[in-house]
Design a protein that fits this description.
Number of helices of chain A: 2
Structural class of chain A: alpha/beta
CATH topology of the largest domain in chain B: TIM Barrel
Strand order of the largest sheet of chain B: 5-15-14-12-11-8-7-6
CATH class of the largest domain in chain B: Alpha Beta
Structural class of chain B: alpha/beta
Helix content of chain B: 25-40%
Shape of chain B: globular
CATH superfamily of the largest domain in chain B: Aldolase class I
Strand order of the largest sheet of chain A: 1-2-3-4-5-6-7-8-9-11-10
Low-confidence stretches of chain A: none
Distance between the termini of chain A: 56 Å
Distance between the termini of chain B: 61 Å
Mean pLDDT of chain A: 95
Oligomer: heterodimer
Number of domains of chain B: 2
Mean pLDDT of chain B: 94
Helix content of chain A: 10-25%
């Protein structure tokens, strides 16, 4: 049985919380930490590097679980900007909605947003996977380099602008595609990839109903006649 | 009919402008190049020291001590950066520079007791190993950025912009995106890489405050956080960085260099270093944090005299980039191999240039093996040879600095002050906010 450690932000500062998570987490047995009274505070559970389960019981602010490694962080509420920014591994789950830049420049691991995410979701992502149960705002996956963004709902304007090798799958409508992004046919490999991510995210959708968006790769090299703007 | 040829060159459309227009018409692409602004600008050369005489007494140049120790990041960090000299090495990426060069920078900086800085593309093991004090940049691209390297850093520099291209992102042309560079940046090999100009996870100054706190939390408030900006609206920008919680503000004037960006950016954006520095100092003074938040100035610093003048105007330290490369042989006609000097003029010629005029860092075909990833070129600059040269150069800068400080009667280089300077031109007097030589006149102030 998990050992549960409650950490109450009505009594602790953010500094004390992160210091505990960085240096004083018990090792050995499975550990679950419950963070109480987050009340929209920023920078909770940032820079973790331990295989712990962290539950944030309420809404939280900016940069939650930033640069996470190995930990599984669940927010039982909504989050502000840049949840799981630059995360490396582990899982970050938001039971509610996420504000802008969710999963920005993530290198690895899985981010699940069960409801909607705002603009620039998955911006600059570098190998992580993101599954959004609802819709995402404009400029999502902007300059995304590697990894996968799965959007079960709709995608806002300029989706995948200046995309590199990351892959985007959208279950609903795409408002518009950004420069160098194009819709491509779903292959069996794509269906398998979406199936796997939906399963891991715990979201039930028909993977075959998704559209695939990838890079045209026409911006990879300067070309005078391509009408490029740099 | 006269056979005399009348030549009246247009001031507006001179030969350089004609060449620019005709090249643009031919290629349909703007010019991209390396290094910094080449146009004539007011510089530290336009200032001189009022060294000691009857009204001030000097220190003995060769015997009396003049302290050059420099401490950066005293505001919030548990472990401020302590250096033996205020001359630091600016951020330059592995990718723009070869791994050999990055190692040489680390070795020389360590020997002389100063810091070196990573760049766009992350931290290489070679530079971490060779650098006693390493500043880790957090850039908009976040190429190779990770919490493990963050925790290995002695300071963090959050880069909002740089003097060569304030408001713009970096570039690394395909020739330099080798397998190793591409791997570190998670990009396909050989593509023309464009870095973002804005950070992916924050935009305005309020967000910056929270971002800085995130970096502090991740590093347990151990190391200083610098905020680096290109010099544009300096007074306002410095105040916002200070308000956001910076330990150190770095201002990079328009003479600052780059490995590659648009020529129109290099020559037409930002303000000169000489103008930027007093504005930054003014902002710190107005916020009553002068001395609490340290100031590093960069952009075209070349000599110990430049360093001394920067310190007299209020900087705590300088950062040098292009001059570092020049110490390693940038624009030299020869390179060193097995103790011999080998002529590189033909390689400059292949690039359409000559020693002394080259700014072709962006091509990756650096004739002296500095700004390259090409295996046939990078061996032209070995870490041992480069480190020796750079150590010598840094030593000279520090010796010149202390020489001038002693002559001004200062036993510590940080005691140099604005009152020690006058300007030789009206422009420099107005920008540096020191009197025109022989007068009490500071344009715009007195």
């Amino acid at each position: 049985m998990d050992r549960v450690i409650p950490l109450d932000l009505a009594r602790l500062t953010v500094r004390e919380l992160n210091d505990f998570l960085h240096h004083r987490l018990p090792t050995g047995d499975a550990v679950r930490v419950e963070i109480l009274n987050p009340n929209g505070m920023h920078n909770l559970a940032v820079g973790l590097d331990a295989p712990a389960d962290i539950d944030i019981l309420g809404h939280a602010g900016y940069f939650i679980a930033g640069m996470n490694k190995r930990a599984n962080v669940t927010v039982h509420g909504n989050v502000g900007w840049s949840v799981a920014e630059n995360f490396m591994s582990g899982t970050v789950r938001v039971k509610g909605c996420a504000s802008e830049c969710a999963g920005a420049s993530g290198h690895g691991g899985l981010l699940v947003i069960e409801e909607d995410a705002s603009s620039r979701c998955g911006i600059s992502m570098k190998g992580s996977d993101i599954v959004v149960g609802g819709s995402v705002g404009h400029m999502s996956a902007f300059m995304a380099q590697a990894g996968t963004l799965v959007v079960c709902g709709d995608a806002g304007g300029s989706l995948g602008d200046s995309l590199y090798e990351a892959m985007i799958y959208v279950g609903g409508k795409i408002h518009s595609l950004g420069a160098d992004a194009q819709e491509e046919p779903m292959t069996a490999t794509d269906v398998a990839r979406v199936t796997d991510l939906l399963t891991r995210a715990g979201i039930t959708r028909d993977p075959k109903s998704f559209k695939r968006v990838a890079s045209k790769r026409s911006l990879y090299h300067w070309h005078a006649d391509a009408g490029q703007e740099y | 009919m006269s056979d005399q040829i009348h030549r009246e060159e247009s001031f507006t459309f001179d030969r350089h402008v004609l060449d620019y227009i005709q090249k643009a018409a031919e290629h349909g692409l703007y010019d991209i190049r390396g290094l910094g602004a080449k146009r004539r600008l007011p510089t530290f050369d336009d200032l001189v020291f009022l060294t000691a005489s009857a009204s001030r007494y000097p220190l003995e140049g060769y015997r009396e001590k003049c302290v050059s120790k420099t401490v950066l990041g005293t505001r919030f960090a548990k472990k401020p950066v302590e250096l033996e000299t205020p001359v630091t090495i600016a951020g330059m990426s592995f990718g723009a520079l070869s791994a050999n060069v990055k190692e040489a920078l680390g070795r020389a900086a360590t020997e002389i007791g100063t810091s070196t800085t990573t760049g766009d593309g992350g931290m290489t093991p070679e530079e971490r190993q060779s650098s006693k004090t390493l500043v880790y940049q957090c850039l908009p691209s976040r190429y190779g950025f990770n919490p493990d390297d963050l925790r290995k850093a002695n300071a963090i520099e959050l880069v909002i912009g740089q003097g060569a291209k304030p408001g713009g992102g970096g570039m690394l042309l395909g020739q330099k995106v080798s397998e190793r560079v591409a791997g570190m940046r998670t990009l396909p090999v050989g593509i023309d890489q464009r870095s973002a100009c804005r950070h992916p996870d924050w935009t305005g100054p309020d967000d910056l405050t929270i971002k800085i706190n995130e970096l502090r939390e991740i590093t347990d408030w151990q190391v200083p956080i610098y905020v680096k900006m290109g010099a544009t609206r300096v007074r306002e920008d410095v105040k916002l960085a200070v308000k956001a919680g910076a330990d150190v503000v770095v201002i990079d004037g328009m003479q600052g260099g780059t490995a590659a960006t648009q020529q129109c950016f290099i020559e037409h954006a930002g303000i000169p270093t000489l103008a930027a520095l007093p504005l930054a100092v003014q902002a710190l003074e107005e916020m009553d944090v002068f001395g609490t938040v340290q100031l590093i100035i960069s952009g075209g610093i070349r000599s110990g005299a430049d360093v001394a003048k920067a310190l007299a105007l209020g900087a705590d330290a300088v950062a040098i980039g292009q001059a570092v490369l020049m110490a390693l042989g940038c624009n030299s006609s020869t390179y060193s191999q097995a103790g011999e000097r080998i002529d590189a003029t033909d390689d400059y010629k292949k690039l359409g240039t000559a020693p002394g005029y080259c700014h072709h860092c962006h091509t990756g075909r650096c004739p002296v093996g500095i700004t390259t990833q090409a295996p046939d070129l990078e061996t032209r600059m070995t870490p041992e040879w480069g480190a020796k040269r750079l150590k010598n150069y840094l030593q000279v800068l520090t010796m010149e600095l202390t020489t001038l400080a002693r002559a001004c009667g200062k036993s510590n280089v940080h005691h140099l002050e604005r009152e020690d300077l006058v300007a030789l031109t009206i422009e420099a007097a107005a920008m540096a906010k020191v009197p025109l030589a022989g007068t009490n006149w500071i344009p715009g102030q007195t």
